[in-house]
Structures are given as structure tokens and as C-alpha cells.
Design goal:
Structural class: mainly beta
Shape: globular
Number of strands: 24
Radius of gyration: 18 Å
Largest sheet: 10 strands, antiparallel
Distance between the termini: 19 Å
Strand order of the largest sheet: 6-7-8-9-24-18-17-12-15-14
Mean pLDDT: 96
């Protein structure tokens, strides 16, 4: 989609946006659509776009996945997940109705924030403040987006790991087709595992210290990677597009957690996730980066992770 067309769609729908850079090269920040980010190069939006999410509104039984690059809380499932607060999978009202405000803006930078009330599967209420600090750098046929993703706990009760897990989780979506894949350096296969029961081993090949996992839409799967994987990279040969994500180190006293979309009666696994790749049979995929969680969540705690996403056109 052309960036100019997308901006017109937002204006027609009466939804606010903030543009970092320009409609030729920049980032559209969809303030009234979960604060999602849409990267532009040469006037084209590179991320997946769902026009129905721009013109419509998500409701309880009909979630219109916007695409782009979103900030959600992890874990998704398990006994401490936020998508299973009612016992079945749904996007909670706090997330799907999130409306961000511009906190501060400068040359090629913007900070946006939104207050959200989360409820986990145990029924524990977790009031939080989501913040995304975005900085954009431009190059020849490239754009680098540096985002500090933060979740600040606003409650007045200290929560243990038995009561609450929460960490920033950023999900960057792209349309995919035959030949699309995610590549990352990895020499130990134990650093990679499936988050759904169905094995995706057949989607992966290992060569010269790198893992290649196909994201052509032929299988729904999600794989996780631990801290031994330094970065992940989406490659779309049809668009000559390469997108690399790198998550910075965790804050002191934090550790990675299980983010899996597991049923609400399954306890979180002890194995933590730094990156994940989600491939959907509706011809889109996500490259995801995850922050950390402290042993106890104290009032005022701010959980942050710095994520750098590099977009390159190779011709």
C-alpha cells in the first residue's frame, strides 16, 4: 500500500496518526489503532496493513488485526496470560481499544503513551502505562527504527511470579509468500523450540551456522529462541526486502519468560524467550522481540527493552 493512500484512509476514518519523517520515508504511528507502527520506504508501506482495521473497530468476537508493529504484554497464554482472562482466547479490551497520546516529539523522534488495565487468567488486575519511544534514522534504500518499549506498573501491591508475569513484547508483521523466510545465527538447535504442539521442524534448514525457517503461509507455527540468538531477520525476495531485529540486553534483575499461546490451565514454562517467529496460514508472519520480568513486580516498576529494526531494499 502507498503511504499516501494509508494516510488518506486514516483521515477518512477519523483516526489520529503521527508521521515521523515523511510519506516517502518514515514511520506512520497509528495513535488510535493500538499505537501500531508502519514503516515507509520509497512511498510504500512495508509492514502488513489490514484496511478493515482502519475503517472499522475491533469488538469482542471480531478482532481486526491491524498489522504493523505493535506492543503487547507477554505472556499471551498459560495460567498467567492476558488473552485468556475469560477462559478463551481474545484480545482484551484494554489492548484493542488502546488510544495513545503524543508525549513528546522532535526531529525524527516521537514518544507515545497510553494507560491500560490488564487482567490475567487468575483475575489479577494489573494497571500499567505503555510507552513507545521511537527514533528513525535514514540511509540509502534503508531505514532504521530504534524503539524503547516500556511497561510501567501503576498498581500499589507488590506481585510475585506466582501472581503475575508481565513484560514488553513487540510484534512486527509482514505479508509473506513463497520464498519468504526468517534467518538467524544459531549453532545449537536447543536454542530453538516450538511454541505450538505441531512440529515445524520441516520448515527449518541449518547451514553454515544459520537457521532458515520458511514463512510462506503453508503452516501455522510459532518458534521461540533463547538468549543465545543475537538477532533475527525476515527476508522477502519478491520485494527485495530484508528486515533485521535486534533486542538489547535485559535490565538488571530481570529474566526472560515463557510467552507461549498455551491453554489457560497450563503453567508457564521455565524456559524464557528472547525472540519468536510466528507464521500464519493467512499469508502473514511476525518477527517478535521480548523483554524481561523481575522476580517481583513492585509499584512503579518500569520494564523496558530497546529494539532496533533495520529495513533494507536490496535492489
Amino acid at each position: 500500500m502507498k503511504a499516501s493512500e494509508m494516510l488518506e484512509s486514516f483521515e477518512k476514518a477519523g483516526k489520529r496518526v503521527h508521521l515521523v519523517g515523511s510519506a516517502d520515508n518514515g514511520v506512520i504511528v497509528a495513535l488510535d489503532m493500538e499505537g501500531r507502527l508502519f514503516t515507509i520506504l520509497n512511498g510504500e508501506v512495508l509492514n502488513r496493513v489490514n484496511p478493515a482495521a482502519i475503517s472499522g473497530e475491533s469488538v469482542m468476537k471480531d478482532y481486526l488485526n491491524p498489522g504493523g508493529d505493535g506492543l503487547w504484554p507477554a505472556p499471551e497464554g498459560t495460567t498467567l496470560g492476558y488473552q485468556y482472562a475469560t477462559g478463551s482466547w481474545r484480545v482484551s479490551p484494554g489492548l484493542r481499544m488502546a488510544r495513545y497520546q503524543v508525549l513528546e516529539a522532535g526531529d525524527n523522534t516521537v514518544s507515545i503513551g497510553c494507560e491500560i488495565d490488564l487482567i490475567n487468567r487468575l483475575g489479577t488486575g494489573i494497571p500499567v502505562f505503555f510507552q513507545r519511544k521511537i527514533q528513525v534514522e535514514f540511509g540509502e534504500k534503508s531505514l532504521i527504527s530504534k524503539v524503547r518499549e516500556s511497561i510501567t506498573y501503576l498498581g500499589n501491591k507488590t506481585l510475585t511470579h506466582e501472581e503475575c508475569l508481565v513484560t514488553p513484547w513487540t510484534l512486527c508483521q509482514f505479508d509473506c509468500a513463497a520464498g519468504c523466510e526468517v534467518v538467524f545465527p544459531c549453532t545449537d538447535k536447543s536454542a530453538v523450540w516450538d511454541l505450538y504442539e505441531e512440529s515445524s521442524d520441516a520448515r527449518r534448514t541449518w547451514k553454515d551456522g544459520f537457521c532458515h525457517t520458511a514463512t510462506d503461509g503453508s503452516q501455522r507455527y510459532q518458534i521461540a529462541m533463547d538468549e543465545r540468538v543475537p538477532w533475527i531477520e525476515f527476508r522477502d525476495p519478491g520485494r527485495s526486502l530484508t528486515v533485521r531485529r535486534h533486542a538489547g540486553p535485559l535490565q538488571t534483575g530481570q529474566s526472560y519468560i515463557d510467552i507461549s499461546d498455551a491453554p489457560p490451565d497450563v503453567k508457564p514454562a521455565s524456559k524464557g524467550v528472547r525472540y519468536s517467529v510466528y507464521s500464519d496460514t493467512n499469508d502473514f508472519m511476525e518477527i517478535e522481540a521480548v523483554g524481561g520480568c523481575p522476580e517481583t513486580l513492585s509499584p512503579g516498576a518500569k520494564l523496558s527493552i530497546d529494539v532496533t529494526t533495520e529495513f533494507y531494499l536490496t535492489n
